[in-house]
């Protein structure tokens, strides 16, 4: 089994820093004439993923967002007071690293959180703002606690992007029924599966892999070798170090996952948002990444059954920052297409589709003009069993409504229709999957929190039945569930 850890990277980085500091000559840096009023969406995602990779607790996580907002408005600034640089305004001449290292958001975040972990351990009663001050040693120590509300908002946004999972296939046993998976993403990095029996998820979850998808990596599932059983994939995302941009796959045997093997060595780096789908229609799932920045590029690496080919640009402007990307076969031709939910207010909550022709995605066309408003959680799946993927949105608030818009092959049926009026409350995590094998995707929710239950609402083709508990302990807080 191939094992990957950030410990070695952190230690080597710190050693390199010490060496660099010893030989670093004075460098002049410009003071910032202004700081952007808004955060950089890519920066908050990389800060979040780095914190997850170090398995920080919620208090330490929040401290980093407080520090980042106070110091730079969460922007990777090439300027600052005296020798300060980057998102945390770290100084090369105070032992933080070389200027080049500090301007790497992953490196800078690792430096911040490594120190914050120690501070929290030594001072368990500290508030997040006090931890930030312990690390930053600011002349204005009260500023960090004062921005807690903003920091929580940024943290929630970063988590939302990092956990984007609008579509996924999870039939890991190959019996035609989707199962549920959870990745612990902690120091153990275990993967557990609860197979579907058609009326429940098997009572005691079983460990299918004991070291896969470390904290900060993105875990997904798909049938990459075309054997009818869904496998698991992990995107490491790093921008530097030995694991930068790697993609690992662990194949399903039907009763477990094999050891992780590297299938690609540079894909979905940094803050990009990866996805899985069979975009060329050959029966094997491929990997897709959305740069999710102002360029809005989309790259694809096709599966040959044992590895992914070179990343090739299939679209040059789709799902820029703040939109919610997805993949699904919306016209029923056997090739997965790209979808993006703009997620604006009611006046601008559009759904755009780029159809796959097998070698690229076509121009983005509006398929719906009012769906998945604001912070709703959109999903993609074939809920009526006609072979074309539809769109579903969960309000995940006090109303807990679920709406669906069916695909006609050229658009999503105009007026959204409520398919369930109480499913997925605040803090819960919804997905779609055909759990009873009838060809129609159902709704599934992981309650998280204190209960850690899994509920299912079966699709009738025109609505979802009331939620029924299919598992009473699966997908704990901090774990990634599919």
Automatic annotation (TrEMBL):
<dbReference type="InterPro" id="IPR028994">
    <property type="entry name" value="Integrin_alpha_N"/>
</dbReference>
<dbReference type="Pfam" id="PF13517">
    <property type="entry name" value="FG-GAP_3"/>
</dbReference>
<protein>
    <recommendedName>
        <fullName>FG-GAP repeat protein</fullName>
    </recommendedName>
</protein>
<keyword id="KW-0732">Signal</keyword>
<feature type="signal peptide">
    <location>
        <begin position="1"/>
        <end position="30"/>
    </location>
</feature>
<dbReference type="Pfam" id="PF01839">
    <property type="entry name" value="FG-GAP"/>
</dbReference>
<dbReference type="InterPro" id="IPR013517">
    <property type="entry name" value="FG-GAP"/>
</dbReference>
């Amino acid at each position: 089994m191939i094992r990957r850890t950030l410990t070695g990277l952190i230690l080597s980085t710190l050693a390199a820093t010490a060496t660099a500091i010893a030989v670093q000559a004075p460098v002049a840096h410009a003071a910032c004439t202004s700081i952007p009023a808004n955060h950089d969406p890519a920066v908050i995602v990389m800060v979040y993923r780095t914190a997850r990779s170090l398995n920080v607790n919620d208090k330490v996580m929040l401290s980093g967002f407080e520090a980042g907002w106070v110091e730079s408005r969460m922007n990777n600034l090439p300027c600052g007071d005296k020798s300060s640089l980057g998102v945390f305004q770290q100084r090369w001449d105070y032992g933080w690293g070389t200027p080049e290292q500090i301007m790497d958001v992953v490196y800078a975040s690792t430096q911040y959180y490594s120190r914050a972990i120690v501070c929290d351990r030594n001072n368990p009663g500290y508030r997040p703002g006090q931890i930030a001050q312990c690390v930053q040693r600011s002349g204005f120590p009260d500023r960090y606690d004062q921005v807690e509300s903003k920091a929580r908002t940024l943290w929630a946004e970063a988590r939302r992007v990092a956990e984007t999972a609008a579509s996924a296939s999870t039939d890991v046993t190959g019996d035609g029924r989707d199962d549920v998976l959870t990745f612990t993403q902690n120091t153990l990095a275990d993967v557990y599966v609860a197979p579907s029996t058609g009326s429940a998820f098997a009572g005691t979850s079983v460990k299918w892999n004991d070291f896969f998808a470390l904290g900060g990596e993105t875990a997904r599932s798909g049938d990459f070798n075309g054997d009818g059983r869904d496998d698991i994939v992990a995107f490491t995302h790093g921008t530097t170090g030995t694991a930068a941009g790697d993609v690992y796959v662990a194949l399903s045997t039907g009763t477990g996952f094999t050891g992780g093997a590297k299938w690609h060595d540079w894909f979905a780096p940094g803050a990009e948002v990866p996805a899985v789908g069979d975009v060329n229609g050959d029966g094997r799932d491929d990997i897709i990444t959305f740069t999710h920045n102002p360029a809005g590029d989309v790259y694809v690496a096709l599966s040959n059954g044992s590895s992914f080919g070179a990343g090739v640009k299939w679209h040059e402007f789709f799902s820029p920052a703040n939109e919610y990307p997805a993949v699904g076969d919306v016209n029923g031709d056997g090739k997965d297409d790209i979808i993006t939910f703009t997620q604006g207010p009611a006046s601008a909550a559009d759904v755009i589709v780029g159809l796959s022709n097998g070698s690229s995605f076509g121009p983005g066309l509006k398929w719906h003009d009012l769906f998945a408003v604001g912070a709703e959680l959109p999903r993609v799946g074939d809920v009526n069993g006609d072979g074309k993927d539809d769109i579903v949105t969960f309000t995940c608030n006090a109303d807990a409504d679920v709406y669906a818009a069916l695909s006609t092959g050229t658009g999503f049926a105009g007026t959204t229709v409520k398919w369930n009026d109480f499913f997925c409350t605040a803090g819960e995590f919804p997905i779609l999957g055909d759990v009873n094998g009838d060809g129609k995707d159902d709704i599934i929710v992981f309650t998280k929190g204190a209960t850690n239950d899994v509920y299912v609402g079966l699709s009738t083709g025109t609505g979802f039945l009331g939620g029924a508990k299919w598992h009473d302990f699966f997908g704990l807080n901090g774990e990634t569930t599919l």
